[in-house]
Amino acid sequence: MGLVNIAVGPQHPALKEPINFSFQTDGERIVSADARIGYAHRGIEKGMEQNNYVQGLFLTERICGICSHAHSMSYVMAVEEAMKIEPPKRAQYIRCIVGELERLHSHLLWIGVAAHEVGFDTVFMYSWKDREVVMDILERLSGNRVNYAINIFGGVKRDIDAEQAKDILKKIEKLEKRLQYYIDIGEHEPSFVARFKDVGVLTSEQASSLGAVGPTARGSGVTVDHRKDDIFAIYHEIDFTVCIEQAGDALARYIVRARELVESCKIIRQLLEKMPEGEIKVKHPRKAGPAEVVARYEAPRGEDVHYLWADGSDKPFRYKVRAPTLAAIPATLEMFKNAHVADIPVIIASIDPCISCTDRAIALTDSRTGSTMSWKELRDFSNRWYADRSRR
Amino acid sequence: MTDISSTTPAVQEAHVPQTDALLERMKTLLPGATAVKRRDRRYEVDTTPEQLLTVLETLKSSDLGFGFVCTIVGFDDGTQLGTKYILGDKALVCSVTVRVPNDNPVLPTSTGIFPASVLYEREVHDVVGIRFTGHPNLSRLILADDWPEAVYPLRKDYQFFKDEAGIPVKGCLLVDTANKIQIKK
Predict the structure, then answer these.
(1) In CATH, what number does B19-139 get?
(2) Are A283 and A387 in the same domain?
(3) Do residue B68 and residue A85 have CB atoms under 8 angstroms apart?
(4) Contact B3/A at CB under 8 A
(5) Alpha-carbon distance B10 to B92, whole Å?
(6) What integer pLDDT is reported at residue A357 of this predicted model?
C-alpha cells in the first residue's frame, strides 16, 4: 500500500486549540509531517504599530491566555530599555513572583492535560485542583485569574503587602508537599511511564538545530534557561537549579516540568524573603527611542522573544513577537517521524503547545433571539446599560 | 532617568566575559559588514543580500557561536523592505539586518544554515512579501486561506478601514495605495 495522508486538526486531538497537522503515513508509521498555523491569527503585530505604548501593554497581555505575564514582561522589558528607564528593585521582585506563579499554574495545567491524553484522568483532576491554589494566589495579588495586568513601564501597578506575602508562603508550602506526587508518577507509575517513555524522541543535536526552547529543549539535555543565561530582572540574586533530562522523550519533558514546579516554589520563597522595601514604580515617558531592542524572557514554554523598533514617537515602528510554541513546531515535526499514529496526541501534548486562541469579535449573535450586534452596537448597548444602572 | 547600561548588575557583566573581544572578532571575521555592540549582550550586524549567507554561516561557526535563530523579523522601513535575523547563543543576541529593494524583494533562504528558520521565513513571506529562493515550501503559514494574493499586511503602505468607532471592520479591509486598488476580503 502506498503512503496515506491524514489531516489532524485544526480541531485536534491534543489541546483545545486550533492547529492543523498533515501526516504522511505508511500503515501505522508516520513518514513525514507538516503544520499549518494561523487559525487564531489576530494581527496583533499590526495592532501594536497602530496603538501607543500603553495601549500595546493591553494587547501584549492578551497574546496568550496562559502565559499572559510572559508576553507582558517581554514587552515592558523591551519598552523600558527603549525608554531608558529602570524599574525599582521591589517592582522587579513582584514581577518575578507573578512570573513564577504563572509558571506553576501553567505547568500544573499542562500536567493535567498530559495525564488526560494518556487516559490518567485522576491526575488531571488532582493537578487542576492544585492549580486552583495558585490561581487563588494570583487572583488575590492582581484581582484577575488570567490577565494579571501587574506590569507598567517603570514598575508594577500593585504592591504585595505583608499579609499577602504570609498567605502566599502558607499556600506554597501546602502546594509543595503535593508536588512530589507528580514527580513520583513520572518516575514510578508503570502505566504512565509505559505510555510516555520513548515516545516522540528528540536528540540533543536535533533540539539545538531545530530551535527547540524551554522544557522541550531541556528534556533533550540542552541546558538553556534565560533565567540563568540571558539573565533578566533579578534572577541573578536567586538560587535555583535548571532541570535537565537527557532522554529526550515525552517522559523526560514531563519530568522536567514536574521538577520545575518544585524549583518555582523555591524561587517564590526566596523572592518573598529577599524582597526589599521601597517604591514600586518610577515615572515613564510617553515616547520611546529611537532604539532597537530584543527582549528574551523565559516563559513557562521556553524562550519568548520580543523585538521592538522604536522610532522616537509614542507608537512602535515595528513590533515582532515570537512565542515559544512557534519555535517548538519544527522540532515537533521531527518527533513525529517514525512514530505511531496513536502517539500523535501524546507528542503534540508533550511540547505543551499554546496556540493562542481568542479571535477578535466581529459580529456577536444573541443566542436567544438570533439577532446580531456589531462592535459599535455592542459598545453603545453597554454604555446605555451602565448609564441606566447608575441612575437607579 | 537612569541609563540601563550603567546600572546593569555586575553579576550579569561577569556572566559574559568575552564581550568586547567578541566584537573585535566579529569585525575581523565579517569584512564588508558593519558590526556594533548596542549594549551588554546585544550586537548588531548590517550586511547585503549577496553576503547574507556568508555572514550567517560565519556567525554560526564555532568562532562566534551564534548557533540558534531566535526569530526572523520582516520589516518595511518606508523605503525598503528587509529582514532581521535575530541570532542567539545562550546569553548573547546578534541581529543581522539586510535590506532589499521594494520592487524585487528576494533573499536567499537561510534554511540550509538554520533549519529552524523554515517557519520564520514563511511568516515573513506572508506578512511582508519577501521571497526566499531555495526555501523548501513557501506556502501560506499564518494568513487565512482566503486572504487576497500579494496583500502584505505589515507593509507600511497598507492600512485598515475602520468604522466610526475606530474598530477595523470585516476582519480588516486593506487598500493597496501603490496600485490604487481597494481589496475586499
Answers:
(1) 3.30.460.80
(2) no
(3) no
(4) yes
(5) 16
(6) 33
The pLDDT score that the predictor gives to residue A348 is 85
Closest C-alpha among A16, A58, A22, A57 to residue A40: A16
CA distances B76 to A195, A371, B119, B124, Å, are 48, 42, 19, 11
Reading the block at residue A358, the C-alpha cell is 481568542
- Chain B CB contacts of A307 under 8 Å are 71, 73, 84, 86, 95
The Cα of A304 is separated from the nearest Cα of chain B by a number of Å equal to: 9
Q: What ipTM was predicted for this assembly?
A: 0.85
Q: Give the residue from A257, A341, A333 showing the smallest Cα distance to A299.
A: A257
Q: Give the range among A141-150, A240-249, A262-271, A350-359 with minimum mean pLDDT.
A: A350-359
Expressed as residue numbers, the domain containing A152 is 44-350
Q: What pTM value is reported for the model?
A: 0.86
Q: How far is B37 from chain A (nearest CA, A)?
A: 12
Chain B nearest-CA residue for A207: B116
Listed as ranges, residues in chain B with pLDDT below 70 are 1-19, 159-163, 166-185
* B16 interfacial to chain A (CB closer than 8 Å): no
- How many structural domains does chain A have? 2
* Alpha-helical regions (H) of B3-128: 4-7, 10-15, 19-29, 52-60, 117-127
Q: Give the mean model confidence (pLDDT) for residues A371-385.
A: 73
Distance between CA atoms of residues A5 and A22, nearest Å:
7
In a shared domain, residues A214 and A257 = yes
Model pLDDT for residues A53-88, shown as the tens digit of each residue: 999 999 899 888 888 999 999 999 999 999 999 999
Q: A311 touching B, CB under 8 A?
A: no
Assess contact for A65 and A358: CB atoms under 8 A.
yes
Closest CA to A352 of A135, A66, A31: A66
DSSP class of A235: G
* CATH number of the domain within which A256 lies: 1.10.645.10
Residues from chain A contacting residue B71 (CB–CB below 8 Å): 305, 307, 320, 322, 326-327
- The reply to whether A200 and A337 lie within a common domain is yes
Question: pLDDT value at position A31?
Answer: 93
Contacts of A153 in chain B (CB under 8 A): none
- Statement to judge: residues A389 and A315 lie in one domain: no
- Which helix (H) or strand (E) element contains residue A20? strand A20-26
Provide the chain A residues 225-284 that lie in CB contact (below 8 A) with chain B: 229-231, 236-237
Contact B154 A46 (CB under 8 A): yes
B7 lies within 8 A of chain A by CB: yes
Contact A322 B70 (CB under 8 A): yes
Does any CB of chain A come closer than 8 Å to the CB of residue B12? yes
B 52-81 near A (Cβ less than 8 A): 67-71, 73, 75
- Shared domain check, A122 and A75: yes
**Please, are residues A245 and A252 in contact by the beta-carbon 8 Å criterion?**
yes
